[in-house]
Backbone:
């Protein structure tokens, strides 16, 4: 009850205070990373940890573990006089919510895009059992997702600039906001400048969406123009005129088809079982 009464008296932190807090935290993380690099250079073990050093993620996880994860203020929050709070429920965020917010902020977007890239590699692997139609569909879907995820996060950032609630998507998912607990509020009109920045961010998102659709329409137009040409080419190498047919009626060039059947006794398109001795070289094609 005491906590609830206390949070009813608190004011929501504005955009400027939240941005200053995160900027100060980012500066400390960069400073921490530089110090660790200096230490590793002295003990001559830099090469073994080089992939981790190139990223700020391990240092962010360590920093937020000892601050947010343990229920303490970060340096930026202490500097601006704000604390993390679940304003909707009028209570201190739970440990689960704080940990979830940290993981999503540090790993969310990059981890998801990395998973999509790995999925794309497995889809286009030569030994993949997917049909060509499925490969084309999944590649198109993954490319759209890789474009939409950064755009969606940019839209969320624009919402923060406009309304000052939920600094990141991870904070919104975990239900964590910021409350002002001490210190003076800024007297300048930066909040209106940030709202203008939010409008510009939305305009940038619309331009990105329009550009991606324009690129897709150009690509589809290119495919339509070359559709007849592609039908006259081998469906495996897309370079030579098909001269060989399978029993199921699909055409390929001789070398591509024989190489394929030596690996898999299946038609590359319909996956029907094909014995190499049953392919037919078409002379009058």
Residues:
């Amino acid at each position: 009850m005491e906590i609830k009464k206390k949070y009813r008296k608190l004011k929501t932190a504005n955009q400027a205070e939240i941005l200053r807090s995160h900027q100060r935290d980012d500066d400390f993380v960069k400073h921490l990373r530089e110090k660790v690099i200096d230490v590793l250079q002295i003990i001559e073990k830099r090469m073994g940890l080089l992939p981790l050093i190139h990223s700020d993620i391990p240092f962010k996880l360590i920093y937020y573990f000892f601050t947010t994860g343990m229920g303490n203020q970060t340096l930026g929050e202490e500097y601006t006089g704000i604390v993390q709070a679940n304003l909707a429920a009028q209570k201190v965020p739970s440990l689960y919510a704080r940990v979830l917010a940290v993981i999503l902020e540090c790993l969310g977007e990059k981890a998801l895009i990395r998973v999509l890239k790995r999925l794309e590699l497995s889809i286009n692997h030569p030994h993949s059992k997917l049909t060509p139609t499925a490969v084309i569909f999944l590649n198109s879907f993954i490319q759209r997702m890789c474009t939409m995820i950064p755009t969606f996060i940019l839209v969320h950032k624009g919402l923060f600039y406009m309304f000052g609630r939920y600094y990141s998507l991870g904070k919104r998912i975990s239900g964590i906001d910021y409350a002002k607990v001490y210190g003076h509020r800024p007297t300048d009109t930066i909040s209106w400048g940030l709202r203008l920045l939010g409008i510009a961010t939305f305009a940038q998102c619309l331009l990105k969406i329009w550009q991606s659709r324009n690129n897709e329409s150009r690509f589809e137009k290119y495919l339509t123009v070359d559709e007849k040409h592609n039908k006259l080419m081998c469906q495996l190498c897309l370079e030579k005129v098909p001269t060989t047919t399978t029993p199921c009626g699909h055409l390929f060039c001789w070398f591509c088809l024989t190489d394929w059947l030596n690996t898999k006794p299946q038609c590359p398109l319909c996956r029907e079982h094909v014995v190499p001795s049953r392919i037919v070289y078409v002379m009058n094609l």
About this structure: DSSP finds eleven helices and six strands in the chain. The chain has two domains: 15-212+223-229, 244-281. Residues 1-7, 222-230 have pLDDT under 50 and may be disordered.
